[in-house]
């Protein structure tokens, strides 16, 4: 049971009040006498006598040590020395991916102390490592050249209203489940499984976007080769362009093999002349640059986030959801996306063609 402050105070007073002076002139105190007086004072309490006697000894010892019958505030762990803080700082600066468990093991400092020092004293925090596309040294000057050309020729809302940036992506019927982040909380392991077909049902989607409108989606079900790209995608796309877009706008495509064949480049030149942004042409689209493509850095991710909010059961439902999603891309969204495009180009130049996502 818990003892009140009144009861603990009575115990100390009773213990010393019942003391007697022996023949040697020393005071002798009786736990038994204190116990009897306590039970007489608080008869309504149902207390086991041996437990009470143990408590009396504990309270008297506390009073003799601290002068108080109440528990004092625990002093806790002693403060961490500057030497320990500096040691932890050096270890983390040398190996910033080190776990707290390993840091504690190597330094001999308790895990919770390591955590407090890093967060409260050194103001370090754990940040998630993001996975981004790989860039090779040869890519940097190509990215710089493209961004310089863009700023000189396309950094104009009127041109961006008439120009189209294109790309394709696969959409799977079952979406995507990340087993590293997908959890089911339960007192016992429910052994939940996510069934996946051996060959995922999917559809390919090609889109082209300008600052004012979207053309597509154009669906495909097989790997795109040169002929399919020209006949099933480019011909459909070009039929949707108005005269002003064909006369003044640019067309961008990435470096997929089917895109940059001589047949398809010559076919596009019949309509766009030298206003094609592609590999094997000038201006050249830089390889491994999804961070500069509006569809990659914005629209496709936004579409998948919205489409997979609800479970889809058939390929037709998936295609309907894609069409509906594309119809919801309005002018305000496109203006923001291309404003982001301008900012990305400027940051890419600032970083000399290297990664710039940390500056966004």
Question: How would you describe what is shown here?
Answer:
48% of the residues lie in helices and 9% in strands. It folds into 3 domains: 5-66, no CATH class; 82-121; 139-359, Nucleotidyltransferase, domain 5. Strand 6 (251-252), helix 11 (262-272) and strand 7 (276-277) form a beta-alpha-beta unit. Helix 1 (5-17) crosses helix 2 (31-41). The strands form 2 sheets. Strands 5-4-3-6-7 form a 5-stranded mixed β-sheet, with helices on both faces. A two-stranded antiparallel sheet has the order 1-2. Mean pLDDT is 87; it is low at 177-187. The protein has helices at 5-17, 31-41, 49-66, 82-94, 100-107, 111-121, 139-153, 157-162, 226-239, 243-248, 262-272, 294-307, 315-327, 331-350; strands spanning 20-21, 27-28, 164-172, 202-209, 214-220, 251-252, 276-277. This is Transposable element Tc3 transposase. GO terms for molecular function: nucleic acid binding.
Assign the CATH class of the largest domain.
Answer: Alpha Beta
Can you summarize the main beta sheet?
A: 5 strands, mixed
- What is the CATH architecture term of the largest domain? 2-Layer Sandwich
Q: Indicate the mean pLDDT.
A: 87
H/E element order: HEEHHHHHHHEEEHHEHEHHH
What do we call the CATH topology of the largest domain?
Nucleotidyltransferase, domain 5
GO molecular function: nucleic acid binding
Protein name: Transposable element Tc3 transposase
